[in-house]
Automatic annotation (TrEMBL):
Protein's name according to its UniProt entry: Adenosylmethionine-8-amino-7-oxononanoate aminotransferase
Residues found modified as N6-(pyridoxal phosphate)lysine: 272
Sorted UniProt keywords: Aminotransferase, Biotin biosynthesis, Cytoplasm, Pyridoxal phosphate, S-adenosyl-L-methionine, Transferase
UniProt cross-references to NCBIfam families, sorted A to Z: bioA, PRK05964.1, PRK07986.1
Native source species: Microbulbifer donghaiensis
EC number of this enzyme: 2.6.1.62
Amino acid sequence: MDLDFDRNHIWHPYSSLIDPPPVYPVERAEGVRIFLEDGRGLIDGMSSWWSALHGYNVPELNAAMRGQIEKMSHVMFGGLTHEPAIALCKKLVEITPAPLRRVFLADSGSVSVEVAIKMALQYWQSQGRGEKCKLLALRNGYHGDTFGAMATCDPVTGMHHIFAGQLTQHFFAPAPQVKFGQACAEEDIAELRQLIEQHHTQLAAVILEPIVQGAGGMRFYSAEYLRRVRELCDEHGLLLIADEIATGFGRSGKLFACEHAGICPDILTLGKALTGGTMTMAAALCTDRVAEDICRGEAGVFMHGPTFMGNPLACAVSNASIDLLLSGPWQQRVASIEKHMQRALAPLKDTAAVADVRALGAIGVVEMHEPVKMMQVQEALIERGVWLRPFGKLVYTMPPYVISEDDLGQLTTAMVDVLGNL
Ligand code: PMP
């Protein structure tokens, strides 16, 4: 591969084109491994950023894409529809909390967040309450890279602070401090309550990542906290947007993380694992009330319609991925990954450089006291046959659910070896 061209001409995520760090050339991927050009196979501990639940080169997913390609790779969704989209949306309505019955198919996670925000704004505009146009988000939250989504990410510690001056100003409550498994006391929710009480006349919605704050710190918070947020939204007439782009499809141990708290949001975003990590597609679901009020408003329609909306290939492979997930013992697999990670990563708790070790569902996190040298850690892990992408102080893994006990052992042993010796 022409890596010189890559270095000099191609942007990678959050990358520099002046003296960029090396990127590793991947030739193919199979099962839980990605294979570099030099033949080395690496266990993908990232599932290609939360998405490849079933691993790679999965016969059922390949067959779904192959079958659909022969019929129609794409067709516009304006004025036309097709079976893969109908089947997928039926499935999404069935498996998400019951009140979520209306589906918008978006083309990426960030776009589904834009769609969710627009839904919330249009909902209030339709009722003549256009002043309710602000959002309340959580510090340490992360919702994507587009402008609407960026405005809901943590404005201080978040990745988008350099654009702060150009972003819509929303309200931010402190990141939940109360951990997963703990009860939520009044003081844990007090500031959020205060912000809602003070600003609810301007607020359209609360937006949050349920249970797991991902890119903003890989933090797992109390289900009761989430329940209290839902109650506060109800008390003050706010919509709740749950961003399950990362947590959706079983990653936290429940099919959707909202289930830990037994709550239903008014709007739900999904992405990443929707297509089993094969293609880009996302979705925003909402309740009948939200959809109907939007459509009764002045515009009479929901104002969004991307060119590749409802792409049939992406719909077909999403259908196959959801079928494959639900027809297998995903809950047992995720539970045993959680148990393994809790046990295998525990020795790192005694390491001076390690601040915290935690696992929930198929997510394992080692938080260091200081930011790690990403390339050095990555290279050491690669020598041990493992692919991870450390981020600041965090070295974390969310492997494919199909990972074997042996491969999981190799993954966690590599993490313990490398991080234990920093
Ligand atoms: N929301 C959350 C919670 C995410 O983790 C991400 C992706 N990291 C996004 C939104 C944005 O999704 P995408 O990268 O597909 O645009």
